[in-house]
Q: What sequence folds into this?
């Protein structure tokens, strides 16, 4: 036992997603300061922090909705190269549609509320160029089924659905193209506790069945604890601590993390 | 002493009602529109003595293109004799001295609302279509700034979503008029509220079509010999209205786009929508020396 | 005999920022663990037995020292290894058994037990069959297999948890009082399973309130009571050597 490998990883060598030294200011407010995040294939990464900590800004950047002032973003996928922040609008949209899925806290951001649920899912496939009606219908149905959406409501518009069901439609839309990265922005915030548990369970099941790499942002530590393998803690735009989920919750190192964990009911 | 002795006789301030700079702008925008088929070009829509929404866009194009030798035909829903068509026709003649006609074959310039004539248009003819709403993306993207970006990116996925929704809700595509169509493989346009029946007539047509929306201040064009393809799913073919077997009860013409005339007993009869074609057909049966032109549809089938 | 774990001068304490204090847990612990060896941790309450287990599992971060683990990928220091490696090792080589079940809503008992096998790449059907076998061995009634453990009594939850934790043979197993408040049948099944795993070469470190249940498995004992002699000495002094063990 004389050879000791250094800290760098032995098992999985390359992260799927790498955000490096990302900073973003809105006017005088620095939303994110020099944040670096790596997410590995098949892993669930949780981002916690109070409102205004920059966690949602970071997620929006991962979805290429926002560009930082400095920093780079790479995805380790066969047909994706370079700093994604430098892509033009067209390439960016194509990449977002085919490689990245997102579920927003507010379903109005992610869904066309008056179109059918299946149509909302089909839209993703249409953006990717699918032009066969029956294929669209089949694939939408499969994605909705995987999200445990009741198929008898396949064509109901989201506006007529409950909050939990709307999140399932968003989820189906996000996974319809089997993205490499699934982003979840407070996916269960605002839902009833029981509904929240069901949605989390669906997410967990999907993650296990498909080994989807996920990044989940929440201010709810319970959600992060249930979902995440690893956690990063953000405060005032800065990543103050990162580690295994159980370590962050059982043996937090940073004063702020301790405060956060101890504040949990 | 009367007012007449004190004033000069009326004469137009400028030829063809519009002033020279307005016509120059329209010409430039039309050239741009021809250069980028199907792409909407903004223009400064002028005031004309007609309410916005009644064909002011088409009228401005006609006023720009017209000269004393241009033979003008104006139709509204296929008919030359509706009030709106008649008013525009007489206005065009009055401000330019141009001759007018009802016969598609004799016209150089045809301004139309909601129809394309049944007789095939030639290379020397120009069709001007009045457009109420030029933006095909409006129903799927209410934000016009984003809609323009979508045009720039050829991001038209949502147009199919609209069709998807119609099939899901009604079992078939319900879009009757203004059927969104891809022009030259690049820009999706609304062909103005012409029926589905008329859209195939634009594909690789010999004539120039200019579409103009006065209220929305947009001009776009389908140049001669340009592809116009209605958006369809690969597995749901494009269908025109089921008028192939209908017969006009006045002219006996068969296999053309018809107007349905409801009857008192609840049934309905049909009349050909292209009224002048019907008139010509009747006169020919009565023995007049009438030339019926080649038609796009033969026996109710679009001939390619 | 292969050395599975080589713990060198491991030190752990907690910093409590809101109190501005440091609390020492254990200091400068060293020991080695071989394949198929069973090590009992003992000591008074608060001596740091559970803390040591959690530090080895990386739920707690050590302050200094090294924990060299002979993984199938080579030797890796569990204290400094990257988080992803730890996650991976936890799925494949290092198990942790507690008395507390982390049940999830709407996941059946058998699905929960089958999960480690699923993650290790077994087919859904094979994993479920194996899961049912272990639920039965631990005495969970068949009508409960498809039910959700969130509604189970504490004892039944614990059985589900044990079945889940022990279903997949691991290289290293950390046991944190798994027998507490367990009924006789389950306890017997547990001990039998531990013996089986041990004979297959699983190295184990355990904390037991009543070590009598597993006394025949114990190879060595480490006493973490403060002021006890240093770890190396403890190994020598306080060990209870069983026949057949080295």
A:
């Amino acid at each position: 036992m004389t050879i000791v490998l250094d800290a760098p990883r032995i098992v999985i060598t390359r992260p799927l997603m790498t955000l490096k030294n990302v900073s973003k200011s809105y006017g005088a407010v620095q939303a994110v300061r020099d944040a670096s995040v790596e997410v590995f294939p098949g892993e669930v990464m949780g981002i916690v922090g109070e409102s205004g900590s920059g966690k949602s800004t970071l997620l929006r950047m991962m979805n290429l909705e926002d560009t930082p002032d400095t920093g780079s973003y790479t995805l380790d996928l066969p047909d994706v190269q370079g700093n994604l922040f430098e892509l033009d609008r067209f390439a960016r949209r194509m990449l977002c549609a085919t490689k990245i899925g997102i579920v927003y806290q507010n379903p109005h951001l992610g869904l066309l509320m008056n179109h059918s649920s299946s149509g909302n899912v089909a839209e993703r496939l249409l953006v990717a160029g699918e032009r066969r009606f029956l294929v669209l219908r089949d694939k939408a149905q499969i994605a909705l089924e995987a999200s445990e959406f009741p198929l008898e409501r396949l064509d109901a518009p989201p506006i007529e659905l409950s909050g939990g069901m709307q999140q399932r439609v968003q989820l189906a839309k996000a996974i319809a193209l089997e993205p490499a990265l699934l982003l979840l922005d407070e996916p269960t915030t605002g839902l009833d506790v029981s509904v929240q548990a069901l949605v989390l369970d669906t997410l967990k099941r999907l993650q296990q069945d498909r080994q989807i790499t996920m990044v989940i942002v929440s201010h709810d530590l319970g959600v992060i604890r249930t979902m995440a393998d690893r956690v990063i803690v953000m405060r005032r735009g800065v990543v103050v601590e990162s580690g295994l989920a159980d370590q962050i919750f059982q043996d937090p190192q940073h004063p702020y993390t301790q405060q956060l964990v101890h504040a949990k009911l | 002493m009367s007012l007449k002795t004190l004033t000069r006789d009326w004469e137009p301030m400028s030829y063809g009602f519009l002033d020279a700079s307005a016509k120059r702008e329209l010409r430039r925008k039309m050239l741009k529109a021809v250069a980028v088929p199907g792409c909407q070009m903004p223009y400064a829509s002028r005031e004309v003595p007609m309410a916005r929404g009644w064909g002011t866009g088409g009228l401005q194009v006609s006023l720009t293109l017209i000269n004393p030798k241009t033979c003008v035909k104006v139709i509204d829903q296929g008919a030359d004799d509706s009030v709106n068509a008649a008013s525009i026709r007489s206005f065009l003649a009055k401000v330019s001295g141009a001759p007018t006609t009802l016969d598609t074959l004799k016209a150089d310039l045809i301004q139309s609302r909601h129809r394309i004539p049944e007789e095939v248009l030639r290379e020397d003819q120009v069709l001007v279509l009045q457009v109420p709403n030029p933006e095909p993306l409006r129903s799927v993207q209410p934000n016009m700034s984003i809609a323009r970006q979508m045009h720039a990116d050829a991001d038209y996925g949502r147009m199919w979503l609209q069709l998807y929704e119609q099939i899901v809700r009604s079992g078939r595509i319900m879009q009757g008029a203004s059927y969104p169509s891809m022009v030259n493989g690049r820009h999706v346009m609304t062909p103005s509220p012409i029926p589905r029946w008329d859209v195939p007539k634009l594909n690789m047509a010999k004539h120039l079509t200019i579409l103009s929306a006065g209220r929305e201040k947009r001009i776009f064009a389908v140049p001669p010999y340009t592809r116009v393809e209605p958006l369809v799913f690969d597995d749901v073919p494009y269908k025109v209205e089921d008028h192939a077997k209908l017969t006009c009860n006045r002219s006996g013409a068969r296999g053309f786009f018809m107007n349905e005339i409801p009857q008192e007993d609840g049934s309905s009869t049909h009349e050909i929508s292209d009224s002048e074609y019907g008139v010509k057909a009747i006169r020919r049966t009565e023995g007049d020396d009438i030339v019926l032109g080649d038609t796009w549809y033969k026996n109710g089938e679009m001939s390619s | 005999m292969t050395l599975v774990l080589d713990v060198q001068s491991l030190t752990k304490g907690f910093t409590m920022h809101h109190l501005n204090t440091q609390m020492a847990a254990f200091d400068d612990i060293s020991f080695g663990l071989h394949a198929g060896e069973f090590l009992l941790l003992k000591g008074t309450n608060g001596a740091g037995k559970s803390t040591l287990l959690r530090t080895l599992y990386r739920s707690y971060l050590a302050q200094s020292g090294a924990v060299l683990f002979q993984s199938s990928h080579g030797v890796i220091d569990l204290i400094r290894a990257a988080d992803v490696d730890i996650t991976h090792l936890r799925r494949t080589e290092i198990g942790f058994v507690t008395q507390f079940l982390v049940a999830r809503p709407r996941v059946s008992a058998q699905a929960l037990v089958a999960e480690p096998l699923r993650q290790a790449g077994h087919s859904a059907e094979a994993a479920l069959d194996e899961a049912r076998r272990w639920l039965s061995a631990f005495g969970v009634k068949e009508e409960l297999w498809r039910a959700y453990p969130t509604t189970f009594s504490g004892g039944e939850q614990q059985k589900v948890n044990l079945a889940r934790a022990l279903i997949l043979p691991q290289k290293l197993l950390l046991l944190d009082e798994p027998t507490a408040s367990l009924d006789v049948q389950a306890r017997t099944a547990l001990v039998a399973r531990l013996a089986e795993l041990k004979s297959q070469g699983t190295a184990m470190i355990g904390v037991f309130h009543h070590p009598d249940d597993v006394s025949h498995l114990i190879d060595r004992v480490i006493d973490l009571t403060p002021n006890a002699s240093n770890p190396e000495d403890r190994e020598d002094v306080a060990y209870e050597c069983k026949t057949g063990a080295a």
Residues 20-35 of chain B form the longest helix (16 residues). Chain B touches chain A at residues 140, 149, 153, 155, 157-158, 160-161, 164-165, 167-169, 233-236 (CB under 8 Å). Chain B has two domains: 20-230, 241-299.
